[in-house]
Specification:
By secondary structure, the chain is of the alpha+beta class. 34% of the residues lie in helices and 20% in strands.
Length: 204
């Protein structure tokens, strides 16, 4: 199966040939990874004998997968231009991300509401599309199946479980994230409001 045919299983079909060309042009190792709770995708710059490496989670819907892929390729381009002399999500990365997203906006590969959310997000792209709640909420509408409840929907101090089985208690919101206590080890973790959790059953 050709590269663009494989990619078309994970992103809008019209976008796959462009991403396939990028992979070949930059001689990038592109990996479709299993779900990772802490990140949607990852870029690693060349090191020793390894070249550019990008990985994107396989459980993202087609539109989130493409946005994440472009995000990581913007890191690759920024590394090629500046190496490690600039901030990872500084002005250079933002400009590259906007430029690399343009072909997909021009082809209108996204539904209208996603296209609009991305256009607004591009006014000042953040380190992660997840940190833009409007874009993240819009993208999540296209998830095939929700695995739980959003953290923002459960009561303060409620107990919940995440995918790896760890249990937490929901705490106060600090700016964009909720401060939650892990009941297994007592450590504090910051959660995205849109994180999918399983609300613990309460006794009667």
């Amino acid at each position: 199966m050709k590269k663009d045919q494989v990619l078309a299983q994970y992103m809008p079909a019209a976008a796959a040939p462009i991403i396939a060309r990028w992979i070949d042009y930059f001689q990038c190792e592109f990996k479709i990874s299993k779900n990772r709770t802490t990140k949607l995708g990852d870029y690693r710059h060349p090191f020793k004998t390894a070249g550019h490496r990008i990985s994107v989670n396989n459980d993202l819907n087609h539109f989130a997968f493409l946005v994440t892929t472009v995000h990581e390729f913007a890191h690759l381009l920024t590394w090629n231009d500046h190496k490690n002399k600039v901030k990872p999500h500084g002005l250079e990365w933002k400009n590259n991300f906007k430029r690399m997203m343009n072909p997909f906006l021009e082809q209108q590969v996204f539904p209208e509401e996603v296209q609009h959310a991305i256009t607004v997000y591009l006014l000042n792209p953040a380190a992660s599309s997840c940190s833009d709640l409007h874009l993240s909420r819009t993208l999540k509408k296209y998830d095939l199946a929700s695995k739980g409840t959003r953290l923002e929907e459960i009561p303060l101090h409620a107990e919940f479980t995440i995918k790896d089985g760890r249990k937490f208690k929901k705490g106060e919101r600090l700016r964009k994230r909720f401060r939650c206590t892990c009941l297994d080890n007592g450590h504090i973790y910051l959660f995205n409001p849109l994180a999918e959790v399983i609300l613990a059953a309460t006794g009667t």
